[in-house]
Amino acid sequence: MTFPVVGDLYNRIFEIQQSHPDLKVDYAIWNRINTSLPEDYKLPDADILERLKQSAP
Fold first, then answer.
1. Residue 5 β-bridge partners
2. Which of 8, 11, 42, 49 could serve as 15's disulfide partner, Cβ 3.0–4.6 Å?
């Protein structure tokens, strides 16, 4: 059973936070994602992006 909630509840994990009040996400899935990430984690991950830039030809 899904329980839709406003996706804005999970904006904290995104580096660029944008409001999309009409976007609904599954509470169980996104709550699991949210609670399993380190508190300071952001998407996109800045460290990974920097490494990708350095390895690009």
1. 25
2. 42
